[in-house]
């Protein structure tokens, strides 16, 4: 299971970074979202893989590590805020630059107004 | 128990929130409240400096949970002086915006500035690595928002690059934190120091990865080669007061590098002792050189000053890389100086832009400025200081760092700092003489600079003067600071030995 | 056979039926020839499948812990309210962009 | 204390002229003279003691931790220079009063002159080498401003910049050298440094320190190859040249040689460097001076030459030579200052300094002519004038070299050669200006004698030349002796200044020089032609070109890195990650740790594949943006399943809610963006990106595997043990969020609020039409805003969703749930209303200012945290209690719940700010669009 | 009208009360009180979103309608599923236009939903004048029959429940 | 009985999810993809519920409920995007 999750994280990271290296705002944001999934999973599994033992105090005596979970929660929220900001920034950039290229390059399919 | 330690975080936070609730039309009221709050913050930082100056650590356990289980704030000499720096910087940057006619300040400027301060001060105070991440995000997001206050193509592009790079950096930050937690099971920096020092040969290399990844994150904030590329565009496209506020942000990166690589991966970190040092000094050196080259080639004053920020980062990290008390002390001294002066220069450039019509701050001939003598005089003084010429603080800072250089890389460091200084001198003499002297015969009809704006710039320059005049007291403080930072055992004991308030 | 095992069998049957319907719905989605036909599988079968599973769960938890466990009903209710609207909305979207349909379809959309 | 006054008085005097300027030029001049006059008086007051071999010391601690102290010492050398600085300074002040045209600000020039004077005095009476450097750099800065006094002239600006750059560079080198000296000696106190000559010279760092300090001295004294700034500094007003470029600024360099003489001189290295630089400069300067047509140009190169002479003398490592050098410093100051003043007078009266146009001036200004002739003769080394005396000493020293080899004959030969040229250019100066025919169209005609007060300073200096030349022992000897004592200490040699030493070799050399000079001048035609052919390069143009070239190079190099391409920046960033990561990962012997891996089940594998297909699919399909968004949602969905699978229901709840809100956001944004990503990356770029992405992905995967197979000790047990007893909740994750690490949560909701504010600010006034299709057509959208079926159902769902939200909120402390998720559910329910019924419709029903809602939420959370202060606990300390009410029964009241309400309110507020303002964007644009359409109709 | 403002949707309130108890899986006194409070509070606060009251008449017809729908869903689904996995060539899809007798948006919504849930039919579109509903049928032999069948089975009872006046 | 039934049921649902993914990837139209995603959400609910029974834990119920709510909201928004482009107007 550890290998499987490692592979999943690896693939997510790779895909995220590949997309983050594209030239248009939208795919880049998609890529960063993928990357944040990978990162969240990475943080999460740092508490090691535990099946069926949520961190809710009950009669069981085995628990999962709650700290990484709390960290992931915070990371998810912050990631959401960042994604939202980036999206609006992408709109702002298209408005100012006339296209959605990350460097504001004028290309064929859209001319600045 | 004293809650003063948390005030530098909560005061700006609450001020920022209240400012959000105030109606936009009450511009002056907003401004006054904002100024009052920053002023109070300045007073608080002075009190904290006095407190920290005694050499004790003030540990504030949030939620009254004993470290390492809860989050702690730790006040030591380093965090105290950094907060003084941030609050003074904020005070003058905000003071600068008093001018009613200034076009740029959007309604949320003040609250965003306060949120930025929250993030900055939080980063300085926290003793918890993940909490550091959270405060980094607060300050980053505030800075994004401040940068994007108003539209322009240039700003949009710079903002996009800045944000995307930093979001990527945050991902790496999280991976590093998670790795550390996954191997040591703790987030408290003092506790991490203990655990990292005790790491065996099996886990140490993986902790090492985290250590180096953290450096990438901090290096991105601090703007070190090859991670600074976002900075010139971002800083130079920001409005003057915003850019001035930004002067503190690279210093947060520098602070984090100092903190983490002395406390956690410092001299006592066992297998991982000083893991950063082989990387740090060459990169710092290249940063210094490329920054100076950038300043030499800049075509706009704003861009040039942004490069000066990079030069100062290179200089600072060179000092850090020397890993000695004298060097660290010199570094902190230089840090204070360079932050104040770069901020003053950014503010000044804003005034220049307003009086130069369409030429803005391009280093070309332009119509005469309305107050060219005043602005030129201020520029001259600030430039002298930033170049590191006497009699201003830059000279002392530079001399201190040169003095502190030891070891085989000394010739490089000397060459870097001295030649960098020469490049900056050449660059600034060109831009200054062009902007203030190469004037066309007519004057742009622009309003005269607001008196408060001038006072703000003067204030920052005066702080630089103060560093020179009270230099000995400052150096005494930074010496003690360096001693404290480079011998982290008392810090660790203070944090891990902290006992919560009874009764909970 | 104890009470417990009877409950288990009933639970198992509901779970299997639910799973089967879910699978069938998805098979429909996967293999039917045009969009409008594919829409039918998920709109009903899957919903029904989940309903089956939820009933299985309800039975299981009502017998394995103190008191009834009826809150699964809420999910069922919710799904039965929303699934049709989802299907309606997607169908409307498909009509808007004039998705093609198989030739033998009688009638014409408007 | 008086020593400080000596330095500071001119500075105080700097303010006076600015203030008195408007009351008249004379008063202005008097006020300017006040400070230096008192300084001079103070110096004279100290004079007897100093002449007797004593010195005054003032010590005040300033920055002892740096080694920079306010330490002053007035000894013979300092006295000699001090008198020169203040004395000539006063003369220059007087001269300036008449020189400067009324158009220019007299006060400003005086102020700058006085600042300069202060710095210069500081240099000569510093007893701390760092303090000396402080003043040293101040002279550079002041001279920069003085040279660029007429800053509208491009040449003045360029000259000033050149001077600043060169002398500034020298200053930096000097700083380096001084710091090295400090390192060697352990002190920056000059007294101590000068006393440690042996220690210094035997130190391994001596060569470095020496070279650095010499660079400082040579740049300031315009020694080859740093000489070229001086001729271009001639764009300064002539009084400035008279002061800076004869008596003071350029003398600072040779002063430094004198000052550091005990510490640095006496070695072979010193000899070879200093004497050869001096020699070359001497010859080169003298040679070049002859060909300059500009009066001040001639004087500038002559100055260079004379400074070379002085340097050469210091370089000879002989005590007598040092004395000669000191002597020549004084002599040069007197005659050169007066000659510059002459040049100024000529310029002032005729409007030109070009010797080809100036002829026969003696007819118009006989007095000036007389004085200039005397001064020029002193410069040429004519007997009975002071220049002759020091030159004789110089010649004799060149003959007494204590080295062997070619230098023994080369040095005297070249010295004579330079002497010949000196005579020639001196003669040329006099002959071509004052005699030799009629002036050629002068801008001002006819010229006449300047005011008496303008001649007076010059006359005083000329008189000094004569007096010193005729009665050296009565006048200059005591000063020279005192200065020599300061430089040479007890090694003072026996020497005698005499006009007549008998017939000897030096006299012969003088005679050769005089005769040869005159001969040379009359045979100059061929030489001038030769010079014009050989030597046509202009240093200023070259320097400017070099600076511009370096600026261009800097720009090109900068743009290599700073190319404005985010992709390139990201590649650098990820490259760093790869390099640093690999630096550790590649040297690991054991990747897999000791902990056994858990078994894999089929469903997990299937879901992992689903997720990876989703991720890879997003990449492959990303050109079709909407489809990519859908595939991304699959990844998000499976992420939440993984959270469930490994016991994190809270995470799953959060993930799934955030996921949907994010997708909605992305769609809102996508509306305004092209629907298709063009194919822009070439195969090279694609493969590069694949390599980067693949490496980092692999690295992270390996790291993850390595960590997961290793044991770790965690502090988790503490939380599990204390969650109920200390935090009052059984859901440990939630207790961590609102209690143990509540501060993180406070930060997190702050982030959310700030994001909302930032987004609001960015969207204000944003006008953005949706882009056309790639084929140029407009999208065809449905006409009807919302299907009624959806509207009805959405409204029905609202209370339901609120109920669920309440449920999730209330149970959060004990079971999965909590304020954040509840807030998102509420937001989604409200967003659904926006989607179904439109902005206006919802706005009619809830007209909250969402921004305020968000802020209030954070305030609630912060206030809850601060509440614990009332009970003497730190921020965010929670309290909880179990309350029993009739009917209701026992339930828990916890401050954490209020905190969580804050979280809830913030989430609702900020999410709605973001979504509703983004939704409103199209609203604005549509209205704008309609308006433009209707106006187009009219 | 005072009580209308205070308790806008009594039926909904009762429904929500039950829902709360269902959610919480607990009928302790505390939750009964809390549920009652929420049952009142939530409809009250969301009142602006749903101001018109939809009085439900004829509970008997409601029950009959509901049971018919449930049976249809269960039984007909089975048949339908067999067709889905069977050869798709035998399916005879059609678009039907259902002329609407019901006028109320709410009733139309319920009808459309019911048609969607009912096996083999999906309500695909509602005309702008709300007079007809477009339905896609997966497999139909007689188009007219299907339309009248739908009208009889679903539209008529709904009209009776919500709209007969 | 339950021990064998649960894996089978889970596997069937997983298979269903794979089929949904298949449809989602190949499309061909956007509505196809939307409905595939929607179905995947619903199948996920089934998977979760079965897993809850398997673990004997009611802690997964909320997640299932939330997936239902969010899946619906998502589908509605996606459809509206195709219809109007502007999902909040
Ligand atoms: Na929770
Ligand atoms: Na919209």
TrEMBL record, chain A:
The chain crosses the membrane at residues 6-21, 28-47, 67-91. InterPro entries: CPA3_antiporter_subunitC, NUOK/Mnh_C1-like. Gene3D superfamilies: 1.10.287.3510. The keyword Repeat does not apply. It is found in: Cell membrane. Keywords: Cell membrane, Membrane, Transmembrane, Transmembrane helix. This is Na+/H+ antiporter subunit C. It comes from Cellvibrio polysaccharolyticus.
Automatic annotation (TrEMBL), chain B:
It is a multi-pass membrane protein. It comes from the Bacteria. The chain crosses the membrane at residues 6-23, 30-50, 70-96, 130-147, 159-183, 203-230, 242-264, 276-298, 305-322, 334-353, 373-392, 412-430, 451-471. GO terms for biological process: ATP synthesis coupled electron transport. One of its GO terms (cellular component) is plasma membrane. Residues 127-415 form the NADH:quinone oxidoreductase/Mrp antiporter transmembrane domain. Pfam families: Proton_antipo_M. Keywords: Cell membrane, Membrane, Transmembrane, Transmembrane helix. It is found in: Cell membrane; Membrane. One of its GO terms (molecular function) is NADH dehydrogenase (ubiquinone) activity. Its main location: membrane. Belongs to the CPA3 antiporters (TC 2.A.63) subunit D family. This is Monovalent cation/H+ antiporter subunit D.
From TrEMBL, chain C:
The chain crosses the membrane at residues 6-30, 42-61, 73-95. GO terms for molecular function: sodium:proton antiporter activity. InterPro entries: PhaG_MnhG_YufB. Keywords: Membrane, Transmembrane, Transmembrane helix. This is Na+/H+ antiporter subunit G.
TrEMBL record, chain D:
Residues 789-912 form the Na+/H+ antiporter MnhB subunit-related protein domain. The chain crosses the membrane at residues 23-44, 80-100, 107-125, 131-150, 162-185, 205-230, 242-263, 269-290, 297-316, 322-346, 367-389, 409-431, 452-477, 497-522, 569-588, 600-621, 628-646, 652-674, 686-708, 745-763, 789-809, 815-832, 853-876, 896-918. Residues 610-675 form the MrpA C-terminal/MbhD domain. It is found in: Cell membrane; Membrane. Residues 126-403 form the NADH:quinone oxidoreductase/Mrp antiporter transmembrane domain. Its main location: membrane. GO terms for biological process: monoatomic ion transport. Residues 687-768 form the MrpA C-terminal/MbhE domain. Pfam families: MbhD (PF13244), MbhE (PF20501), MnhB (PF04039), Proton_antipo_M (PF00361), Proton_antipo_N (PF00662). GO terms for molecular function: antiporter activity. GO terms for cellular component: plasma membrane. InterPro entries: CPA3_Na-H_Antiporter_A, MnhB, MrpA_C/MbhD, MrpA_C/MbhE, ND/Mrp_TM, Proton_antipo_N. It comes from the Bacteria. Residues 67-103 form the NADH-Ubiquinone oxidoreductase (complex I) chain 5 N-terminal domain. It is a multi-pass membrane protein. Keywords: Antiport, Cell membrane, Ion transport, Membrane, Transmembrane, Transmembrane helix, Transport. This is Monovalent cation/H+ antiporter subunit A. It comes from Cellvibrio polysaccharolyticus.
